Amino acid sequence: MEQNTKHALVTGGTSGIGWELAKLLAKDGYNIILVARGEEGLEKSQKELEQTYSISVETISKDLFYAGNAFELVDEIKAKGITIDILVNDAGQGLYGEFKDTDIQRELAIVQLNISSLLVLTKAFLQDMVARGDGKILNLASIAGKLPGPLQAVYHGTKAFVHSFTEAIRSETKDSGVTITSLLPGATDTDFFHKAGMEQSKVVQAGQLADPAEVAKDGYNALMSGDDMVVSGFKNKVQVGMSNILPDSTVADRLKKQQEPVDKK
Asked: Catalytic site residue 53?
């Protein structure tokens, strides 16, 4: 059997949307480099992917909340002599609560993870891709980036950055042979809400969360087609469409009601 030579790097690749994207990439014959914080999750994911698909999996435990770790990750991959054909920047977190009350250090770490680490990885591997004239990047934005988000102000702000940044560098590199795609999911059934401390919010309690496998499929199809962006899910498309018509203040007030705790009067 011919040895696979294509490689995809997936951050946050052991759970949620990242894990589903890793499986789709493996199914299509990409060797996977999985990046996450937990060694146990990495080992379990590596074993499952290698047993299910005829590919190899490298795992790297790296906490991208900390400045400098993204640079270390780039150095480790390049030291292995691996060419990244597809980069998936999936890792991201949020924090629930009114900005005046939330932990600023936690929020600065979220900015580091959602923005700074994504910038480092994108620049490093985009430069290589442009030099080769080939490659694909998928950045996990969110419909949150299209909507002002009371009770998740920093998260929504970071995702607005990710989407705008992705569209901008796509334009810069449109004749390079490289495609860059922005995936905009809505509320999805992952551990995001637990990590953000928002299990009691109305959006979670309503139980109408998207299947991460379906979100990943939408993102993967857009990535492979070279599309600039995809909003996953019909209701999310409608919500984004409405946000383009309504004043930002109205959108923010509506979203606040959706994200308030269920017991709030």
From this structure: no
Where is 193: in which H helix or E strand?
A: helix 192-196
The closest alpha carbon to 220, from 16, 17, 12, 7, belongs to: 17
Task: Supply the pTM of this predicted model.
Answer: 0.88
Cα separation, 195 vs 183, in Å, equals 21
Between residues 57 and 186, the one the model is more confident about = 57
Integer Cα distance of 131 and 21 in angstroms: 26
In the chain, DSSP assigns E strands to 7-11, 31-36, 57-61, 86-89, 135-140, 178-184, 229-231
Q: What's domain 7-259's architecture?
A: 3-Layer(aba) Sandwich (3.40)
**CA distances from residue 237 to 18, 89, 120, 144, 153 in whole angstroms, order as listed:** 21, 22, 30, 12, 21
SS3 89: strand
Rg of the chain, C-alpha, whole Å: 18
Residue 124 has pLDDT above 90, yes or no: yes
pLDDT, one tens digit per residue, over 228-251 is: 999 986 566 666 666 676 676 776
pLDDT digits (tens, 9 = 90+) for 153-195: 999 999 999 999 999 999 999 999 999 999 999 877 666 656 6
Rounded Cα distance between 242 and 181, Å, is 22
Q: Catalytic residue, from 30, 96, 155, 220: name it.
A: 155
- Is the pLDDT assigned to residue 265 strictly greater than 50? no
